[in-house]
Amino acid sequence: MTPRPKMDQELIAINDKVTEMTEEIEQAIVDSLRAIKEKDMDLARAIIDNDEKIDDMDDEINEMCYLFLATQQPLAGDLRYCISIMKMVTDLERIGDHCEDLAKYAIRMENEEYYKELIDLPRMAEMAAGMVKNAIRAFLERDLKLARKVWKADEEVDELFRDVYEEQIGIAATDSKNARLSIMFAFVAAHLERIADYATNICEETVFSLEGAYAME
Fold first, then answer.
1. pTM for the full predicted model
2. Structure letter (DSSP) for residue 202
3. What are phi and psi for residue 116, nearest 5 degrees?
4. Cα-Cα end-to-end distance for the chain
5. 103, 42 contact by CB (below 8 A)
6. Whose CA, among 59, 65, 112, 147, lies 20 to 30 Å from 119?
7. For 144-191, what is each residue's pLDDT tens digit?
């Protein structure tokens, strides 16, 4: 087999940057709900400010991929792998946008009196963050079994989302005092559900990069 040290070094550098971006995203998901739960405005503003860093990482990874495609002219598996990375970091960047929106909700809720302890929303955040982390891990480690496990885990997030959403909409319909806050909680849940969906997109890219198809079952 022909040696390919240059190509492998570039792929490793790309993977390292994707891992770094994933860690930023994972922390932002959990922190955004902590900011809401604890009414931590400093943390909320830090998440908003950090979104620019996440955007820059997206641009940097795409530039690295374009350079790899132009200079290494990869074939088959390496080509699919690089294309999948560019799609994945777009999903990560969009997750970062959702985290920024969640932080903005934290600021809007600063002076609200919560009518119940927040348990399900932070749980959803932890589940979504775990899905993102494991989806990227499955991709980088080329682990189809883990990718399909993460993809399947979205059902649990969807079920919890439906429970939270229905509860909050019910409160909005029957409790005028807390209607505004409950609607915001419902939107927070919707953002978290969408984040989990992006994790499933990443899992589909893992399957595509390895098998050339998007079949998850």
1. 0.91
2. H
3. -160, 160
4. 34
5. no
6. 147
7. 999 999 999 999 999 999 999 999 999 999 999 999 999 999 999 999
